[in-house]
């Protein structure tokens, strides 16, 4: 179902298709809805707080076919300006049928829609890196990056976020990471011009590639933008209960950081801004 926020009649409206690759904890769903709804609410807030304000319209499709989802056709994206792939408990380097179908869809859209924006969060970040020829796998340390974490910004990151600060804070929930960043040469059928730079905008001790960026084309983040305190605690518990997180002390320490303020709204503002302003315009 379409969801729209338009602050003023003259505000530009960014239209996003959210590809849901997981379902939230049942308590989160009852309070906040699906991940597509959570993304909509978060980006709507970012649009309201942006100067000048920006409107947001979203639709969403749950694409995990082995759990009753469906894979949309490329034609369903015709009226959208971009897509966003959510986080997931699945491995982005796995070869489940729905993951391979999603990669095929993304490749088609990348080739057919040179004006389209591709956004990815956590699993989505890793899957888009895979699409462009990067490699994804477990962290060399085999441990998890959890909870409220500092991300050190590269000069590209400072430019994107319009900040002189050298870091941001966001919530993390992952063991896998982008191990090798994609390049124009690795993109293969994605057909990137040879001079395209796929920049890294941030890094941490655990994860050297926290996000990827191509102007007017690609923005990904390993960290989560829209998690609140309850979501962080519940998503950690889901992974503990499933046996994915075995270091319970680490999980407890991460859960204790769930209340801390983070920069998810500022990052969402930068993502929205990238749709409507040139790189040096639209100061916030």
Automatic annotation (TrEMBL):
Transmembrane segments: none annotated. InterPro entries: ChyE-like, Class_I_gatase-like, GATASE. Gene3D superfamilies: 3.40.50.880. The keyword Transferase applies. GO terms for cellular component: cytosol; nucleus. Signal peptide: none annotated. CDD domains: GATase1_1. It holds the Pfam family GATase. Residues 79-224 form the Glutamine amidotransferase domain. Keywords: Glutamine amidotransferase, Transferase. One of its GO terms (molecular function) is transferase activity. It comes from the Eukaryota. The keyword Iron does not apply. This is Class I glutamine amidotransferase-like protein. It comes from Aspergillus steynii IBT 23096. The lineage of its organism: Eukaryota, Fungi, Dikarya, Ascomycota, Pezizomycotina.
């Amino acid at each position: 179902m379409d969801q729209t926020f338009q602050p003023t009649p003259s505000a530009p409206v960014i239209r996003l298709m959210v590809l849901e690759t997981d379902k939230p904890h049942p308590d989160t769903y009852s309070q906040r809805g699906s991940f597509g709804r959570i993304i909509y609410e978060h980006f709507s807030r970012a649009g309201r707080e942006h100067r000048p304000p920006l409107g947001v319209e979203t639709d969403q499709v749950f694409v995990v076919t082995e759990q009753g989802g469906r894979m949309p056709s490329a034609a369903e994206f015709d009226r959208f300006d971009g897509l966003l792939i959510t986080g997931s408990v699945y491995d982005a380097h796995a070869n489940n049928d729905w993951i391979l179908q999603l990669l095929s869809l993304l490749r088609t859209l990348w080739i057919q829609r040179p004006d389209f924006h591709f956004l990815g969060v956590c699993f989505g970040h890793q899957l888009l890196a895979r699409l462009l020829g990067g490699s994804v796998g477990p962290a060399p340390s085999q441990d998890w990056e959890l909870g409220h974490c500092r991300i050190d910004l590269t000069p590209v990151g400072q430019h994107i976020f319009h900040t002189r600060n050298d870091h941001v804070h966001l919530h993390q929930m992952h063991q896998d990471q982008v191990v090798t960043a994609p390049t124009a040469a690795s993109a293969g059928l994605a057909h990137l011009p040879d001079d395209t730079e796929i920049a890294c905008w941030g890094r941490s001790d655990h994860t050297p590639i926290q996000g990827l960026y191509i102007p007017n084309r690609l923005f990904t983040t390993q960290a989560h933008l829209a998690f609140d305190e309850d979501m962080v605690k519940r998503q950690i518990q889901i992974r503990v209960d499933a046996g994915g997180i075995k270091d319970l002390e680490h999980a407890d320490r991460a859960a204790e950081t769930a209340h801390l303020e983070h920069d998810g709204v500022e990052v969402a503002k930068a993502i929205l801004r990238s749709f409507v302003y040139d790189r040096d315009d639209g100061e916030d």
